[in-house]
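Data deposition worksheet. Section B asks for the primary sequence of the deposited chain exactly as it was used as input, without tags or linkers unless they were present during the calculation. Section C holds the resulting structure in token form. Section D is free text for depositor observations; keep each observation to a single sentence. Incomplete worksheets are returned to the depositor.
Section A, Depositor: J.P.
Section B:
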Amino acid sequence: MPQVLQPDNPFTLFLILILLILATMPETETNLMFLKSFLEAAQFSARTFQTGMGSLYSLSQLAAK
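Section C:
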């Protein structure tokens, strides 16, 4: 049995819960897709911000020399 589907793994209970919700409320899939898109956009924004701040820090270090 795959490690993810072990009975004592908390992820297994979460997976069962998600599958039950999807089975009883089909519109939930659309909401989950929206949430996924939102989180991906937030992740991209955070990475872009982090890259920009890293560049700003590097430039400030060069200016301080």
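Section D:
Residues 30 and 36 are 10 Å apart (CA to CA).
The mean pLDDT is 87.
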